[in-house]
Amino acid sequence: MTHQSVIKLLLGLIVLAFLLPGAASAQNVYDKWIEVFQPSVLSKEEQRKELKWFAEAAEPYKGMHIQSVAEGINTHKWESKVLAKAFEEITGIRVTHDIIGEGEVVDRVQRQIQTNRKLYDIYVNDADLIGTHLRMDSALNLTDYMQGEGKDVTNPMLDIDDFLNPEFGQDYDGNQLQLPDQQFANLYWFRYDWFTDPEIKKAFKEEYGYELGVPVNWAAYEDIAEFFTGRKIDGEKVYGHMDYGKRSPSLGWRFTDAWLSIAGVGDKGLPNGQPVDEWGIRVENKIPVGSTVKRGGAANGPAAVYATTKYKEWLTQYAPPDAASMTWSEAGPTPSEGNVAQRVFQYITWLSDPAFNSAQSPVTDINGKPLWRVAPTPHGKYWDEGMKVGYQDAGSWTILQNSVKGKRRAAAWLWAQFCVSKTVSLKKFIVGRTPVRKSTVFSDYLAKEEEKGTYGGIVTFYKSPVEHMWTDSGPNVPHYPLLAEQWWKNIAQVTTGQATPQEAMDNLANEMDDLMGKLKLPKYSPKLNPEKSREYWLNQPGAPKAERPDEKPKTKPYDELIKEWKGQQ
Predict the structure, then answer these.
(1) β-bridge mates for residue 284, sequence order
(2) 68 in helix, strand or coil?
(3) 264/351 same-domain check
(4) Cβ neighbourhood burial of 251 (10 Å; 0-12, 13-18, 19+)
(5) Is the per-residue pLDDT at 6 higher than 90?
(6) Can you tell me the distance from the alpha carbon of 262 to that of 377, in angstroms, rounded to the nearest whole number?
(7) Reduced to 3 states, what is the DSSP secondary structure of residue 203?
(8) Residues 170, 276: one domain?
(9) What percent of the chain has pLDDT over 90?
(10) Phi, psi of 247, deg, nearest 5
(11) DSSP alpha helices (H): ranges in 137-186?
(12) Residues 91 and 152 grouped into a single domain
């Protein structure tokens, strides 16, 4: 090459660098965030392809500022601190992702629906509100949007079939109204090290006549709670149960998050009982017709009273004394203190807290590996095969269609998809332990961590053949914000001794019927059944169910349970 040719080549490269500064800059941005988002289920080249799609699809919306909101769990805090910054650098769209209380999120959703005045462009709103959204026609139909108006801003790598439970956010016809962003189950939590200790096992067998293990039913859970409460382990007094009872909205979640279903209140059917669901609401042809036994509901039937009675007895007899004055958020981390043997109702999101995982924790070994495990929720005596077994919270991206339109809608949809993209989902699980994708839980990375015992059975549960039996509140609840408020107010009467379980559930069921009777909703609005005698309904098949005798306690070895799951994967 001649001297002149070399000069021309150099000049050409300099010109190219000036002409294409964005190309080099974009690659640097992609590479920077690809490293942050390790490990990923995608190769780095696949990640780069996905990030490039976001950048190109967002071109018409560069410079916009959108606002979203979510409840205060680790997953959403990471979205706010890390993903919002990444999204802005990659797409040029600025996001303010507010973190507030769950009750506040519901209040703001309701206010925006009522006023049609935009408070947020998009919400991470529990799929428990799916019944509200479909009846009020308030949420954007994402199925239609992805195929029509939003086609150009719908990620070709979104892959709805890869989501663990997309049905949580679907209406009766299978339209996606809400897209899961995170989900976490309520599972049974227990001290595996204590349950496998030969001396403890021997003492339990001598006292109760059967093997200490994962309780299959409430009868066994109660025996185990009694056995551990007051016992000294390593010189410290321990308790056989953990719960909470403070008068607050979270006391309502303690019940509406499927406690009645776990007791066996509703009917068979997945994801929710039909015709009676886990709130005790009877729905016929998509229309709620009552929650009192007199109208064919089950919210004040024998099973509901049994569920409430056991809640109060266990809280009083087997939980730490201060549990009755705790809220959901205070009780969640308490088992990490090392003096609780088991918890029937543990939201696994709390298990992302370092208190459960650090080497300094009383509930880990010297390497920081959990001494605890999670397992299926034990069920009550009214539970029948074919019913849901427990609850999953599914915080889901929701666009309120009447107040968010055009460019704001498109930018918000891009942001939601970015937060659930395959590029980031595995890393997001590691941070918050709230998976939404099959590719995450079945990843090679988590398989290796699972073998090490890193996650205490959480990954094993999500890979198990029973995961689909833990579901959200479902579409039968016609107005979640209005009806949910009645639960905590009435249950609080039980915790304080101001009402018996029967009185509280009677009041609750009557109040729900009264409110449902007054609702006038655009779609599938409630229409109450005429009243009949309790005897009539209790003699019909299914829910509401007549009084049943107590069950014999039943347990199963945890290691045997895991082998069964792995054999069916």
Answers:
(1) 287
(2) strand
(3) yes
(4) buried
(5) no
(6) 8
(7) helix
(8) no
(9) 88
(10) -65, 105
(11) 142-147
(12) yes
Dist. CA 144–CA 406, nearest whole Å: 15
Residue 407: how many CB atoms within 10 A of its CB?
Answer: 12
**Alpha-carbon dihedral angle through residues 336, 338, 339, 342, given to the nearest 10 degrees:** 60
Q: Which CATH number goes with the domain that contains 330?
A: 3.40.190.10
Can you say how many angstroms the Cα of residue 428 is from the centroid of all Cα atoms in its chain? Answer: 15
- Does the pLDDT at position 7 exceed 80? no
Helix intervals (H) in 327-405: 328-331
- In this structure, of 194-208, 214-228, 439-453, the range with the lowest mean pLDDT score is 439-453
Question: What letter does residue 547 receive in the DSSP assignment?
Answer: P
Please check whether residue 533 lies inside any domain of the structure. yes
pTM (predicted TM-score): 0.90
DSSP string spanning 392-409? EEEEEEE-BTTT--HHHH
Query: Could you give the number of structural domains in the chain?
Result: 2
Same domain, 487 and 459: no
State phi, psi for 100 to the nearest 5 degrees: -135, 180
- At 182-217, the pLDDT tens digits run 999 999 999 999 999 999 999 999 999 999 999 999
Which residue segment(s) compose the domain that 220 sits in?
A: 184-389+474-543
Helix count (H) and strand count (E) of the chain? 24, 14
In a shared domain, residues 162 and 232? no
Asked if residue 258 is part of any domain, the answer here is yes
Contact 397, 178 (CB under 8 A): yes
Identify the pLDDT of residue 103: 86
130/134 Cα distance (integer angstroms): 6
pLDDT reading at 558 higher than 50: yes
- Tell me the two tokens of residue 178: 């809400």
Name the least confident of 13-22, 220-229, 527-536.
Answer: 13-22
SS3 call for 429: helix
Q: What is the 3-state secondary structure (H, E, C) of 38-98?
A: CCCCCCHHHHHHHHHHHHHHCHHHCCCEEEEEEECCHHHHHHHHHHHHHHHHHHCCEEEEE
Q: Decide if pLDDT at 17 tops 50.
A: no
How does pLDDT run across 466-481, given as a tens digit for each residue? 999 999 999 999 999 9
Beta bridge partners of 374: 189
Closest listed residue to residue 270, CA positions, set 153, 357, 167, 360: 167
Residue 130's Cβ-side half-sphere holds a number of Cα atoms within 13 Å equal to 32
| Collapsed DSSP state (helix, strand, coil) of residue 364 | strand
Coil vs helix vs strand at 97: strand
